[in-house]
Amino acid sequence: MVNIVHSLNNHEIERKSNKDKRFLITNRKGGYFCLANENKSRYDGLFFFDEKMYKIIESLHIVGSSKASKIINKFYEIKRECGSETETFFMPHYYNSLVYEITNPTPIEVVLDARESYDQRQWGRFYSIWQEGDKIIVKFVKKTDAREDYSDTKEEYSLFLALKFEGMFKKVEEWEKRDYEFDKKRNSMPYERYVFSALTLKTERVVFSFSKNKEKAKKEADYIFRNSKR
Known about the structure:
The protein has 230 residues and is mostly beta strands. It is 8% helix and 60% strand. The protein has helices at 181-185, 214-227; strands at 2-8, 11-17, 22-26, 32-36, 45-50, 52-62, 70-73, 78-82, 85-90, 97-116, 125-132, 135-143, 155-179, 192-211. Strands 1, 2, 3, 4, 5, 6, 7, 8, 9, 10, 11, 12, 13 and 14 form a 14-stranded mixed beta sheet that branches. Strand 4 and strand 5 (45-50) form a beta hairpin. The model has no long low-confidence stretch (mean pLDDT 95).
């Protein structure tokens, strides 16, 4: 059972629900972030549009707790209460960025599934993670693989995700299988997929910025981190 609250201009509507719950926010330029409380879909996560639609983040949640007891829709941001912690999700309009905040510096797991939105190929996915100044950079490279393609090791594209935050991080870099209950219910294959648990963060606020160009992603992450309160 989850409490759902819609809050706008000092007015609130609240109800409890035991149905499938997910929220979705957008950046008004084709990107969106969708997160399910349970019964997950392979189309949940963080997506950005740059000539094509790309998925970047599979999930973002407190380590050991991925279900919420209360979800608050403030229309410009979403708040999610998980135990004693409150998470806030915000997408600045017309930027390829997501701002994530939490009430206390608690370990957060960042799971990735970088790909073109409808590309379900499993092979030829490569991630690199490194620290560059005050940011973490994730580079994803998609290559062809003879097990699924007509060619082998041919690079198709690369994507960058810049993480700007103040705190600690730890690389995980492990593949894990995800089951998609929602897709199975609607008979939309595949029902499972291997995704990449990239790292854990311990921070109160982090900005995720996406681009096909590393320097552009870094620049936007800096700008959003400095100005998100505005």
